[in-house]
């Protein structure tokens, strides 16, 4: 019987740098932002900013999971294929719903769609914390969980932060198509169209190099033996 990581302390999950604690911190941050968006106390501008932050974290977090965690889980856990397939389907449903929200900013159903997305995100968090992540705790020691956590963090930092229809959910396809898009997402958020062309090209090259290095690190981590 698995024990949810939501009911275990940091020491039992491999310490603060463990991938399990990193996941749980992201989940808590998402929950807090979704609650603040929904509670009615924020202004329209604040809710727009919250939504942008939620979208960025949802996509970078899911990309890191799909690149680093789920391939490892499929290799070491009984029923890993079934478990990760269910969560990947949840990720795709979230992707499609957020894409609909982003494409229709003036649609009167926008708030309803956002709440539907929040419900899907919360279900995804529960499935991960109660079913998938405890199996990583069972398979790996603390040091390995921290090593996986470092790879996960590196990928998350260079992952796509917006919905991109058609990007596969599994490596290597997600990395080959998603990593270049992550660079364009970053440019759009941090240096939109107005800067000099040379500056934008330099940012693009640096971002692509960092993203490629992160994916290489993740792949190497995933190939190590189960108990180290």
From TrEMBL:
The chain crosses the membrane at residues 201-219. InterPro entries: Hemerythrin-like (IPR012312). PANTHER family: HHE DOMAIN PROTEIN (AFU_ORTHOLOGUE AFUA_4G00730). This is Hemerythrin-like domain-containing protein. Residues 24-136 form the Hemerythrin-like domain. Gene3D superfamilies: nmb1532 protein domain like. Keywords: Membrane, Transmembrane, Transmembrane helix. It comes from Streptomyces virens. The lineage of its organism: Bacteria, Bacillati, Actinomycetota, Actinomycetes, Kitasatosporales.
